[in-house]
Amino acid sequence: MADTFIALLRGINVSGQKKIKMAELRAVLEDAGLQNVTTYIQSGNLVFDSEVSQTRTLQELINSTILKHFGFEVPTLVVQRAEIQQLLEDNPFLDTTESNKLYYVLLQDSPQKELVEEFNQQNFEHEDFHITDNCVYLQCKKGYSKAKLNNNLIERKLQVQATTRNDRTLRKLLELSAS
Question: How far apart are CA 98 and CA 132, in angstroms?
């Protein structure tokens, strides 16, 4: 029996870089063995079913398929629906901030404790954050586009691969993965 997964691709269709048409992406991933592939907006959000249950194996399959077909590497994070549900429920800023100011930096691996402690000493005007093993929750009071605290900074300071999504996108992916 197949399980439902969510894949988050980083850095596609941004400023003309790493262009991928979603219809073509769905087709090549289904040819590679994924089932019922659905995309949401052009920035690399996928919902799919698979008989394979290991997320790392699915990440490698998606990465190698994109590299082979499109000719470039795309960092990919595959998570189960329940993980997204838990991230949304655990957001420490949920009750104090409008949803359009909430962002989730999903981490590929848990950051080292020393790096987290160091990062927690940082202050960012109009921005707040909370770090867990698999996510950095962001509260961007002026919006993410104006935030100094962004995906690249978090990757560099915590030395982990990451990808960022807003609250609306994660909620939509959760909805799509339920059907």
Answer: 21
> To 10 degrees, what angle do helices 81-89 and 167-178 make?
140
Q: Which two tokens stand for residue 71?
A: 């000719």
- Identify residue 77 by its one-letter amino acid code: L
Tell me the C-alpha to C-alpha distance, in Å, between residue 110 and each of 73, 162, 171. Answer: 22, 10, 23
Tens digits of per-residue pLDDT, 45-65?
999 999 999 999 999 999 999
DSSP state of 71: S
- The encoded tokens of residue 12 equal 């596609």
SS (H, E, C) 133-147: CCEEEEEECCCHHHC
- Put the strands of the sheet holding 76-80 in their side by side order: 35-40, 45-50, 3-9, 76-80
CA distance 69 to 106: 26
Residue positions counted in the chain = 179
> Which residues sit opposite 38 in a β-bridge?
47
Supply the pTM of this predicted model: 0.92
> Nearest to residue 75, comparing CAs of 155, 131, 10, 172?
10
Cα 132 off chain centre by = 15
Residues 6+ apart with CB under 8 A from 17: 11
Per residue in 92-149, pLDDT tens?
Answer: 999 888 899 999 999 999 999 999 999 999 999 999 999 999 999 999 999 888 889 9
